[in-house]
Amino acid sequence: MENKKLSIIVSVYNEQEVLRHFHSEMTKVLDGMNVDHELIYVNDGSSDFSQSILADLAKDQPTVKVINFSRNFGHEAAMVAGIDNSTGDFVVCIDADLEKPPAEVIRMYQAYLDGNEVVNMVYSNNKIRGAVRQYMTKLYYKFLNKISRIQFVESSSDFFGISRTVADILKESYRERKRYIRGFIQSMGFRSISLEYIPNERYAGTSKYNFKALLNLAIVAITNFSDKPLRLGFYLAAFCFFLAGIAGMITIKDLIIGNGAMILDFAMLMFLFIFSLMFFFLGILGIYLGDIQQECKGNPIYHIKDTYNF
């Protein structure tokens, strides 16, 4: 196997129950590959014993590196920090929960050697997530691909590999505070490949991605890659104008037949409906304006408290 340096970025948030086992599995894979490598753990402000475990793992192992955040900045920020501080020719992002099999890194590395700049890992036979979540994921990607400027790989995740070229572009150009990294790397246009994998059961602990976190990530993806929700205001205005015309005709008819009570009830319903549409659109506008405000502030994506072996 050609010896191009490999960087493994591992996002960690309260994973004390699984860290040592993950490290053992990942180390076996890397030792078997026999390539120059670095294993970078990014501790995203864990409140358990993850930090002390990582410090112990990094002891006397110069290829094991640790970044500790000053607080929790989120999974995307952890991946950004790892990519920013990596030095490998090929960079793989993976979680520590062992749902993503470390052994798949071998296939990903080979795909990179075959000339691919981006390697997307796509889960298949995902019984672990349940039928409802699988259906919602498919629905989400169909909707996202319908309204976005690019077409995303369905069922892709934050398990991916990128070349040094792509990593440097992310480091220099894609510095949004609200990020959708899997979307960024797919939108660049570099040669890519999608590999299917079967996810494992989570080794221990619970998933840190609850419904709210997934919903927030979906909103970030939409606002990053589509302006169609903003255009919705025009269509809502046209729809309300059409409704106003119908309401006017109904009102004239009721006036002619002398049905005053019906006119009042209908007018109230129309006002409620139109105001609901207005506030719905204002909510969409508020999301975009909030994102713009965050970008204008220029705050750092993350703060590093300390590091090991850098």
Automatic annotation (TrEMBL):
Top-level taxonomic group: Bacteria
Pfam families, alphabetized: Glycos_transf_2
TM ranges: 232-252, 264-289
Keywords attached to this entry: Cell membrane, Glycosyltransferase, Lipopolysaccharide biosynthesis, Membrane, Transferase, Transmembrane, Transmembrane helix
Occurrences of domain Glycosyltransferase 2-like (ranges): 7-167
One GO term of the biological process aspect: lipopolysaccharide biosynthetic process
Keyword Transmembrane helix: yes
InterPro entries, sorted: Glyco_trans_2-like (IPR001173), Glycosyltransferase_2 (IPR050256), Nucleotide-diphossugar_trans (IPR029044)
A GO term, aspect molecular function: glycosyltransferase activity
GO cellular component terms attached to this protein's record: plasma membrane
Keyword flag Membrane: yes
Protein name: Glycosyltransferase family 2 protein
